[in-house]
Amino acid sequence: MSLKISCYSDIKQQIMDAYYDGCIGVGLVRGRSHEEVVGWVMYNFEDAFERPIEKLMQYVVGFVLVGNWYPAAVQIKGEIEGILSDCNLDLLLAELPEEDASMLRHDLKVLKFIV
């Protein structure tokens, strides 16, 4: 039996929904910094995905949220580079619907993880 792969748009939406909730609950209500909000979001998705393609998508979205503003960017960048080093990107992308694969490839290019 094959497990269903979460698509890129769904993972982005889940993380962005958590980010919005974190901005309210962690940032505004508790008075925490943006860095702490993003940390809270990433922590909440730490064990959410198992497959390399899902982890790659999670880390790409997380990297965008972190930007180059916080030290966590180095760790997330390393996670992305590790997956790209260990796995064949074309095979990973083949697990996604064409539109999601195209969006993920685009984001990886824009973020300079691939050429």
Report the biggest beta sheet as strand number plus sense, adding barrel if it closes: none
State the shape. Answer: globular
What proportion strand? Answer: under 5%
Structural class: mainly alpha
Gap between N and C termini, in Å?
Answer: 35 Å
Query: How many structural units, i.e. domains?
Result: 1
Assembly of the depicted chains: single chain
User: What is the arithmetic mean of pLDDT?
Assistant: 93
Number of helical elements: 6
User: Total strand count, please?
Assistant: 0
Low-confidence stretches: none
Please trace the helix and strand order, writing H or E for each element. Answer: HHHHHH
C-alpha-based Rg, rounded: 14 Å
Question: Helix proportion of residues, in percent?
Answer: over 70%
Describe this structure in words.
This protein has 115 residues and is an all-alpha fold. The chain has one domain. It contains six helices and no strands. α1 (8-29) packs across α2, α1 crosses α3 and α3 (52-66) runs antiparallel to α4 (72-86). The chain is globular and about 45 Å long.
